[in-house]
Design a protein that fits this description.
The chain is of the alpha+beta class and about 280 residues long. It has 6 helices and 10 strands; from the N terminus they run H-E-H-E-E-H-E-E-E-H-E-E-E-H-H-E.
């Protein structure tokens, strides 16, 4: 089990109800580090008429803890998107810590094959899985030869784009900017500003991978960015087109969103968890 150090002031409004519940019921605050293959799920978040990763995790926790459990994820992934690392918050009794390895083993035994729990982490009562995360990283995977084992795990393209042009264009994504142009419309967020710290294409074996890290992401943002960069890589748009798209704040100016199958949430960082 990973350890975490205690932090200072809580987010007074956001975590107030959760904090009071923990105090009143003398419960501990926990993070689960999980991964999943998203092919069979309608994203992370619970939905009324579709199966989600969160639903399956909540059901397994309810059986194991013998009570209904509410979870909070570090973020949301869309239908078909995968996660190599996602932190999920829940509350439970201190008895869980008596044998954390057994708890993780038992939870994994109840979960489907495509959802796995890696670690159980006790965190302080004010910790919040979504709002405490300082950065999130995604990768988008593309392959060019037919490989049956990559079905639903990568996007196959016929032609190879100009990677140098795409990396040059990706430099214009860096920094804190309004990325409304890459977001789905009518999303309920307080701001469309994000601070992108890394955006780069790299070759790994025979796959082309786009790595991007930011403090936060808008809905559908990474897939729209990848689609726009590919238009530049296939020379349909000039290298400086990213600047024009961002300035426009118009989703119609950006490229088509690429398929979900190639997208992975790869890392979430917190100031009190040692990765």
């Amino acid at each position: 089990m990973k350890k975490c150090e205690r932090l200072g002031d809580p987010y007074e409004i956001v975590t107030a109800n959760h904090y009071l519940c923990l105090v009143e019921n003398k419960m501990n605050n926990y993070f689960l580090e999980i991964s999943y293959k998203g092919t069979a799920y309608h994203g992370w978040q619970v939905q009324e008429n579709a199966v989600s990763v969160q639903q399956k995790l909540n059901e397994a926790l309810a059986v194991l803890l013998r009570k209904e459990v509410e979870t909070i994820g570090a973020g949301r992934t869309d239908t078909g998107v995968h996660a190599k690392q996602l932190y999920v918050q829940f509350s439970g009794s201190a008895k869980i810590l008596e044998n954390p390895e057994r708890f993780v083993h038992s939870l994994n035994a109840m979960l489907p094959f495509d959802i796995a729990v890696k670690n159980l982490i006790e965190v302080h009562r004010q910790a919040h899985a979504r709002f405490d995360a300082t950065s999130r990283s995604y990768e988008y995977r593309i392959h060019f030869n037919k490989v049956p084992f990559l079905q639903d795990l990568s996007w196959q393209l016929r032609d190879i784009p100009a990677v140098d042009m795409m990396n040059k264009a990706a430099e214009d994504l860096l920094g804190r900017q309004d990325f409304s142009c890459f977001s789905k419309s009518n999303t309920q967020v307080f701001t469309n500003f994000c601070h992108i710290q890394e955006a780069k294409w790299v070759w790994k074996d025979e796959s082309l991978i786009f790595n991007i890290t930011a403090d936060r992401f808008l809905r559908n943002m990474v897939r729209a960015i990848v689609g726009t960069l590919l238009e530049i890589g296939f020379k349909k748009k000039p290298t400086d087109y990213i600047k024009e798209v961002i300035k426009s704040q118009d989703r119609s100016k950006a490229g088509t969103s690429v398929p979900a199958a190639g997208l992975y949430l790869t890392k979430v960082l917190y100031p009190y968890i040692d990765n």
